[in-house]
What we know:
The longest helix has 16 residues, at 2-17. The protein has helices at residues 2-17, 95-109, and strands at residues 30-38, 41-43, 50-57, 72-73, 81-85, 88-94, 113-123, 129-139. It has two helices and eight strands, in the order αββββββαββ. It has a single domain (25-139), classed as Sandwich (Immunoglobulin-like). Mean pLDDT is 83; it is low at 14-26. The protein is of the alpha+beta class. Strand 7 and strand 8 form a beta hairpin.
Amino acid sequence: MKSRSILLLSVLSALVLLGFQVLSPSSAFTLTAVVDIKPETLNVNMNGRWITVFLSLSEDYNVSDIDPSTILLENMFKAEWTSIENGVMILKFDALGLTDYLLLKLYHMGAARTQITLVIQGELKSGGHFIGSDTITVMNPSQKT
């Protein structure tokens, strides 16, 4: 009986020291998302209202498993609008904020045109995570190289 108590105490102590990582849902899993961003070539001086992201999940998961309120593009932009059609989540991001962000990236690169990979991530309702990316061409015709 005493040896069982010592064993139980040792196991519980180990869990405490590990920060309960074994029981934590955040350590569950991360899925890879398939991402397609439109437009594929983005003029930062555009007058458009939306940047559209088409998102699907690999493996045996459905986009309806995603908690839309957790989705972030570039770890800072929330979707203004979401919809699910034919197993694909369609997200609309405000073009003004995103183009300002991309214009700043172009400026720091000293480029008038370059390819930039944008990352989107979020959480599933079950506690897992997803992450995906797409590379688009970004250009600023008014900048001289």
